[in-house]
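Summary for the steering committee. The consortium agreed at its last meeting that each partner would contribute one worked example illustrating the joint modelling workflow. Our contribution is presented below. We chose a case with several input lines so that the handling of multiple components could be demonstrated. No manual editing was applied between input and output; the record is shown as generated.
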Amino acid sequence: MPSAEDPSQLLLRARNGDTGAREELIRRFTPFILAVVSRATGHFIRLGEDDEASVGLMAFNEAIDSFRPGGGSSFLTLAETIIRRRLVDYFRREGRHQRVLSLHAIDNETAATVDPLGGEAINMVNELADRRREIERYREELAGFGITFKDLVKASPQHRDARDRALAAARVVAANPLFRQYLLERKALPLKALEKSVETSRKTLERHRKYIIAAALMLIGDYEYLADYIGQGKRGGQDA
Amino acid sequence: MLNPERGLVVSRQGKEVIVLTPEGEWRAFYLDGQVPEVGEEVMVPPVKKKSRLAVAMAAAAAILLLFLALPLARRAAAPPVPGEPAYYINIDINPSIELAVDEREKVISARGLNEDGEKLLAAIAIKDEKADVAIEILTREAVRQGYYLPDTRGALLVTVSPAAGSDLEKLAASTELSQKLTGQARNILQQARVQAVVEAATVTPEIRKHAEAAGLSAGKYGILLEALEAGLPVTAADLQKESVARVLERYDTNWERLLQKLHQEKDLLKKEQQLGAILRKALEPKEPGSAHPGTPKNSGGERTEKQESIAGSDEGGAKEETAISRESGKSVSGEKTGTGGRTKETPSDYVKPDNRNLKKAVPGNKDAPGDKKAR
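What follows is the complete predicted structure of the assembly.
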């Protein structure tokens, strides 16, 4: 089954000149590329409508060739760096960065003028550190609820439908001030009330308790990156 | 939709990473090769869906195998017991650490042999990891904690000894293991752009016991023997406190060769016997002689000077040597004149060019204890 193939195998084949694998890899990672481009430019990017999307695709293609296995960082980290660099190049060429770049990117622009590549690399490092801090903060909050990441791996609903329902329940908890308070104070889900608000049986809710709590905390707390990351998978098919 | 292709790393333990996918799924899996940091995005391998039939088949096969293997296992005289130490691995950076690994090279326990070693171990979890993964983690942490400074040459010595028995087979397996581990450590240090001499050594269980009695790691003990033989006034107390690189640097600028020599060493026990009194002296914890602030320093200074001058003459010596061999290739008369003044040294030339230095240094060393006795 081609769709179930390990992406790192695809990467290996693509690097060895297999154009089919390269196309497949780019196709499968298009959501990733769009997410990175959206984050870098600060606005929603659509494939086929925004030039930035093509810049991202080409940069990703470039990353496939420049990736060195066994090097320091993962392929996706490298790809993200290159996509950001190429976007900066692109905006500078277009001379319209004033209008479209986000504040974040403009900040970086001043650094990049001095050292175009170095500045971007530093920015990547900063973002990585920010993400790490956010994850650490999240881990600590979860620990307060007696939940570890390992628990979540076990409690993660396997089926997409089940997961979507659990996420929907988490969204309901996060959006309702009373539910929110209940969760934060009692460190438990208001199962009875929640059961009425969402069309999921109490048994299912209980089974996915840890998962729902974790997702709700992510939405309640100020976890910009994490919450946004989960959203990326739902692009185009938003259900709540 | 398709299965998740990528995920955000939220935790990493050894090679196991836990990721959050954009679809909101939490997944755990093992990565080999590059190990990402928390906060990085990685590609996620697809879930291997096992059909029920496959699971049932696997279970049946396992049961069948168990029945088949049971009599075999009983017949085997001493089956390797998982959970029992099979090898002891010493790692000396300056943190000195000893790992006990079982037959499958899985780390059963780890202990720090000095303060730095304990500190290093406190920061990492390597139990139940494979030895090669453990050394990766260890090395990385040592770099992170700043045991390798820029612009100075550091050292990393991996010494393996079998837990019991010193037959050739066991020693050969130990050598293989130490080679593998040094390779791994070398990679990590290269990635971190650290300049370090990485060397492997194998010692017998007896030597390990002697080292333990001396309060040293097996690796440092081996280095002590090599250094003493080379005439360096190194003591066990020095090596307990400081790293191999730091101690040796004081006496000899060309200290890697001692590590290389240890790597090739076959019989350290014999070396112990040969060194005899010198070794005993070096092992004394804090003898009154070394309490005098002046004298040992002086002799140390002399020694370094001597050593330097030897190191200086080394190049000349090497040239001379090549000249000699060229001459000897040409004619017999040439050989006579060439070796004329160096008859004493020719035997050691046969062994190894480096050994000549050692030979020269030994008389100097013989003087040293004599001096001390006189005092």
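Chain B touches chain A at residues 1-6, 8, 10-11, 18, 20-28, 33-34, 36-46, 191 (CB under 8 Å). Confidence is low (pLDDT under 50) at residues 287-375 of chain B.
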